[in-house]
């Protein structure tokens, strides 16, 4: 951990699918949780939950765009659970997420809604450096 940040990194291979990796990085100082996920087809994505600024940010690695939406109440509940997790129960966090959080989000890009990175907070700016950022909204699929 640097600068007094409390970082926690745990990698768990899914038991049902040994090719899926998920790593969670909890940064209590910045009030963020970042999930790094690699799929069966070896595609990687990052999902950043930033409670300080109230955003969820998605980025598929290798793509030149980030997708941003505002946090919803259930996002905050999940994030608080992760931020309150100690090192001993961090693996339990990922096991819990592997069992209950496999879901698909359908995201609709808001037309013409490219976002300027200023004012989005350090975590989003860092993740989306040199990429376009677009507002998205959750859809129902």
From TrEMBL:
Residues 39-136 form the BRICHOS domain. It holds the Pfam family BRICHOS. Keywords: Disulfide bond. InterPro entries: BRICHOS_dom, Gastrokine. This is BRID5 protein. It comes from Horornis vulcanius. The lineage of its organism: Eukaryota, Metazoa, Chordata, Craniata, Vertebrata.
């Amino acid at each position: 951990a640097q600068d007094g940040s409390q970082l926690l990194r745990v990698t768990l291979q899914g038991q049902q699918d040994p090719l899926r990796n998920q790593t969670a990085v909890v940064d209590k100082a910045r009030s963020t949780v970042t999930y790094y996920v690699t799929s069966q087809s070896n595609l990687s994505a990052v999902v950043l939950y930033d409670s300080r600024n109230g955003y969820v940010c998605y980025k598929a690695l290798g793509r030149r765009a980030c997708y941003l939406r505002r946090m919803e109440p259930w996002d905050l509940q999940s994030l608080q659970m992760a931020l309150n997790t100690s090192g001993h129960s961090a693996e339990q966090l990922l096991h819990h997420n592997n069992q209950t959080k496999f879901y698909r989000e359908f995201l609709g890009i808001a037309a013409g809604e490219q976002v300027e990175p200023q004012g989005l907070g350090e975590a989003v700016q860092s993740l989306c450096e040199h990429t376009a950022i677009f507002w998205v909204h959750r859809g129902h699929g």
